[in-house]
Amino acid sequence: MKFDLRQNALNIVIWVLLITMPAWMNAIGGYTQLGTQVVIMGLAAMALNFLLGHTGVLSFGHAAYFGLGAYGVGMTIRYLDASTPLGLLVGVLAGAVAAALIGPLIVRRRGVYFAMVTIAFGQVFYFIAVRWNTVTGGDDGLTNWHRQNIDLGLFKINIMDSAIHFYYFALVIFALAVGLMASILHSPFGRTLIAIRENERRTRFIGINVNFHIWMSWLVSCTFMALAGALFALQNNFVDPHSLYWTQSGIFVIMCVLGGMRSFWGPLVGAAIYVVLQDYLSSLVSDYWQFFIGLVFVAVVLFFPRGVMGMLRRRAVE
Amino acid sequence: MTQLILFNVANGLIIGAFYALMAIGLSLIMSLSDVINFAHGGFLTVGAYLAYTLAPYVGFWGGLVLAPIFTAIIGLIVEKFLISRVYGRDPLYSLLLTFGLAFMFEDGSRFIWGAQSVPYQVPGWLMQPLSLNYFFLTGYRMFMVALVAIAVGGLFWIMSKTRLGLRIRAGTLDLETVSVLGVNVRILRNLNFGIGIYLAGLAGVLAAGQLGLQPTIGGSVLMPSFVAIIIGGLGSLTGTLLGGLLIGVASGMTAVFWPPASEAVIYVMMALVLLVRPQGLLGEEGRF
After folding, report:
1. Phi and psi dihedrals of A151, rounded to 5?
2. Is residue A21 in some structural domain?
3. B230, A290: Cβ pair inside 8 Å?
4. CB atoms A302 and B82 under 8 Å
5. I need a labelling partner for A91 at 20 to 30 A (CA). Which of A270, B142, B177, B194 fits?
6. Where in the sequence is the domain holding A206, given as residue range(s)?
7. Residue in A111, A123, A294 closest to B103 by CB
8. By the CB < 8 Å criterion, does A198 face chain B?
């Protein structure tokens, strides 16, 4: 029971921090949009970690599904119907359909080969986004659209002008998505995924169709990734084709590792560190911030392979 | 039209030769060390800029000889002090390590040599077209293809005839046994990495003459090299060579008929190969 209590304490701390973020963000030198970015990138990293940390499959191509969600929402609002919920739906569906189709081609691969195939596949979407410029805006990105207010009948959420409203809008979606992921992980299906991570061969021997489970895990992971991408586009009112370039995929992975892959909240912590660090570095050394991000990658691998949460947990155990 | 097609096929073969040169190095490292070297493109960039920096002192030919060797030495050092530390750990860490190095190489080159593309001088007589009708067949392009052929031929000779090559091939199949038989696996992996990086450096020098120099040059050929490996079949160097040439030509042909798809087409080919023959054209089933 004691262990359970500690888990809950962590949950409470995280939720209290997230809910009160706009109140203290300015005081520590940040701004509300930065908080929103943490929440969105946190969702993306947690979605990736569903596959990476909880199923133990090395995926390196998740930026593609992030970008599909982003283009889905942007193109829907620009060309189809100026509705934020419809845009989100289309964005998520775009990511899910692509993941469902690509899944069967890749689930038989393992280890570094899986990583290579996923990252290479992601490039298709990048080139479509860059070359189909009459529709996607090409290299300049998708502009000339704006997120729309949401009319709930009783009241309106003014996400167009108010950064705080948009923060809470993103947080509610984040909460729903994270809650759903947690309950999937606690279901028999989720336990099977963890069994695959721990020992794939034994899981196979008890008669579980491992490839099918990995395919489903991939699908869940990419769908939530698309949701995060859609939110990211809504936040910026802009879609940058670089959000689906292969380097972005690596950034999502480093967020997971930085925070701790074996912890449920680890990726959120990693995303927070990464987003704040990037914000700071890009204002400090505008042109060469990528060099320092690369340095962070190397340092994390050599010195903090367990991530922040892994180190905290280890200390707690000792 | 015929000329246009010929032009693009020739172009595709040359680009494909680059891809192959990159992909063979990547494949060597991946087979023996289980590391995807995301920094491979970064080494190409370094090779290209080293040739540019050396050219005023040693000339084009000196640069062609020295730049890949210097790049390989940098590769040996990077392997020794960074990459070798993550062997035997979760493969995730080696990927992140080389990913970080890729960022550092790209921005590092931008810092040292500038973001603007700089021209790289190739001897004038090499740039002459060989024939007026086929203006695109310059001496330099023929020379590049010949050099790639020599490099790949040399590598195949090393792999099949020398003791080092034999050990690398054996290590690819069963590293533990090779180690038990008294081969120093650390040195073997180090040398193997160096060979791979030498090829990347050579590709860099050749690319400098053909495409001009900019810091992003390496990153842009990395993904097609992955595709070449996947199409050709991991573990088969001949397959990787074939894969590289194949996607180069396919990309060139697509540029004739539907230019916007010229980059995306190779990924469609990859999807088809994975669907019909998951192990790749010349790969063996069950290795990965």
Report:
1. -100, 110
2. no
3. no
4. yes
5. A270
6. 34-142+152-245
7. A294
8. no
Here the tokens at position B180 are 């038990």
Torsion angle in degrees (nearest 10) through CA of B245, B250, B256, B257: 170
What residue in A sits closest to B94 (Cα-Cα)? Answer: A301
Q: What's B4-57 look like in SS3?
A: HHHHHHHHHHHHHHHHHHHHHHHHHHHHHHCCCCCCHHHHHHHHHHHHHHHHHH
Asked if the Cβ–Cβ distance from A112 to B34 is below 8 Å, we say: yes
Shortest distance, CA A21 to any CA of chain B (angstroms):
31
Planar angle of CA A300, A306, A312, nearest 5 degrees = 115
In a domain, A82, yes or no: yes
Residue B287: pLDDT over 60: no
- Say yes or no for a CB contact (<8 Å) between B95 and A127: no
Closest CB to B82 among A113, A131, A298: A298
DSSP 8-state symbol, B259? G
| Domain extent listing, chain B | 14-221
H/E element, A157 = strand A156-157
Sign of CA dihedral B270, B275, B277, B279: positive
Tell whether A195 is covered by a domain. Answer: yes
ipTM: 0.85
Written as one letter, the residue type at B48 is A
The SS3 call for residue B184 is: coil
The domain total for chain A is 1
Q: What is the dihedral sign for C-alpha B64, B65, B66, B71?
A: positive
How many C-beta atoms surround the C-beta of residue A167 within 10 A? 23
Instruction: Please name the residue of chain B whose CA is at the shortest distance from the CA of residue A134.
Output: B260
Cβ of A124 within 8 Å of Cβ of B267? The answer is yes
The verdict on B52 touching A (C-beta cutoff 8 Å) is no
B39-80, pLDDT tens digit by residue? 999 999 999 999 989 988 888 888 889 999 999 999 999 999
Mean confidence (pLDDT) of chain A: 88
| Number of neighbouring beta carbons within 10 Å of residue B240 | 33
Give the residue among A124, A114, A145, A131 at the shortest CA–CA distance from A63.
A124
Q: Measured between alpha carbons, how far is A214 from A232 in angstroms, rounded to an integer?
A: 26
Per-residue tokens: A112: 């570094």
CA dihedral A101, A104, A110, A113 (to 10 degrees): -50
Torsion of CA A172, A175, A177, A183, to 10 degrees: -150
Q: Is residue A182 part of a domain?
A: yes
Among A92, A84, A130, A79, CA closest to A244: A130
Shortest CA distance from A57: residue in chain B: B92
- pLDDT tens sequence across B131-150: 666 666 777 888 888 889 99
Asked whether the beta carbons of residue B278 and residue A108 sit closer than 8 angstroms, the reply is yes
Give the C-alpha separation, B1 to A304, whole Å: 58
User: Do B91 and A58 make contact, defined as CB atoms within 8 angstroms?
Assistant: yes
Backbone angles phi, psi at A239, to 5 degrees: -120, 125
Residue range B207-266, pLDDT digits in tens: 887 777 888 888 888 889 999 998 998 878 899 999 999 999 999 888 888 888 888 888
* Contact status of B106 with chain A (Cβ, < 8 Å): yes
**How far from A297 is each of A69, A119, B75, CA to CA, in Å?**
26, 18, 18
* Chain A residues close to B103, C-beta within 8 Å: 247, 290-291, 293-294, 297
